[in-house]
Amino acid sequence: MGSITLAKPSRQQLEWQDMEVGLFIHFNIETYAPEWESPQSFEDLPDPDLFNPVKLNTDQWMQAAKAIGAKYAVLTTKHSAGFCLWPTEQYEYSVKSSRWHDGKGDVVAEFVNSCRGHGIKPGFYCSYWTNAFMKVKEGEVASKRREDQERYNRVFLGMLRELCTNYGELVELWFDGGIPEWGPDIGSILRELQPNAMVFQGGEYSTIRWVGNEECVAPYPFWNAVPKDQFPLFATGLISKAWTDGVGEVWLLGECDTTIREHYWFWRLNTENSIKPLDKLMAIHYKSVGRGCNLLLNSNPDRDGLIPEPDMKRYLEFGLELKRRFSKPIAEGSYYDKDPTRIATVELIFGRSVKVDTFVTMEDLRNGQRVREYVIEAYLDGNYVDIVRGSSIGHKKIDEVDPVITDRVRIRILKAFALPVEIRSFSAYCYSS
Predict the structure, then answer these.
(1) Pairing of strands 371-380, 397-416
(2) What is the pTM of this model?
(3) Domain coverage including residue 383
(4) How far apart, in Å, are the Cα atoms of 368 and each of 177, 182, 418?
(5) Is 224 found in the same domain as 349?
(6) How far apart (Å, rounded) are the C-alpha atoms in residues 246 and 373?
(7) Other Cβ atoms within 10 Å of 35 Cβ, number
(8) C-alpha separations of 390 from 6, 54, 373, 419, 425 in Å
(9) Which helix (H) or strand (E) holds 159?
(10) Does residue 24 belong to any structural domain of this protein?
(11) What is the pLDDT of residues 25-59, one digit of tens each?
């Protein structure tokens, strides 16, 4: 096991990763005009008066977040049409031009207040990539004129400054599609106003990355370290499968996003039958959080401004099932040893024979992601027998196995990028009857 220089996470990255689950909230003018989610033209924009959520209840949104155990929430403050959920000073296409609250409302403010009232950290989605109101697609103005591009860049920076100034500390900023090289330099605003926020697809300022799909399936093994020379490709999602070999100078976390309705980001009429079943949501959790990434599960409030009851019911079922499976381990342990010559092993002795079907392992990542290969063994008929072999652990690895009856189990680290390896926790569970 040779020693190499490993990328290390920042304090903010570690704190964000510990949150594990977030609620995505897709709510905007596209809720009323869903064809504008991916605009095919710039003509006949949705009338701002369409936007009129007469029963808007952002506290209800937070109930959905709490139901699934989310610690943060991300709202689409501006999506593809260009309509802003706050009264921006950059142009008129926003809530201030709608009939909702006579143009005096601010969805973003209500969202943030509800987040803080419920102990949920707020984040904002604000895409540079598309803005139909300003005739922008894939980051380029339709006219191709430099002065128009520069004007758009100024408008976007103005919006970003408003969002980063007027609503307090943010946990995450989501720049869907990324910031192209001809785009605005967002760095000074981020450093000045939101130095602790995680940044998704924010070009050179990215601290988290897309995993390459909207199915919430992180690649495995998943490595948080990426090579410096490939960082721009990972940051924008151009290396879509997010594979690395675990060696790199930059720490870039993974976030897995997916819909609750298959596959609709914004609310659409008569799509209740597309709500993901519970078993699929559990599989999603195992393939995102269970592979060391965060899960950002979508919600789609309807035209009244409420998350529909069928969706709320599924969120509650999902959260209850997570608690049933993971709230009470059979046993847990950890490993901290500063002796660099020792290979980490954690043994759990139950004191009696019990059934086990799930293991959850967490690496202590403060000094980088070190585990390259591990084995989990159960004590059967007087000997330890392999029941799981894996590669990366990272923030968290969930291993589900055919049930075994044993009085002890252990995890052994077989290969590492560097020593010592520190195991934050190793836990055994059984949820099967």
Answers:
(1) antiparallel
(2) 0.97
(3) 331-429
(4) 28, 33, 9
(5) no
(6) 12
(7) 10
(8) 20, 51, 6, 18, 16
(9) helix 146-166
(10) yes
(11) 999 999 999 999 888 889 999 999 999 999 999 99
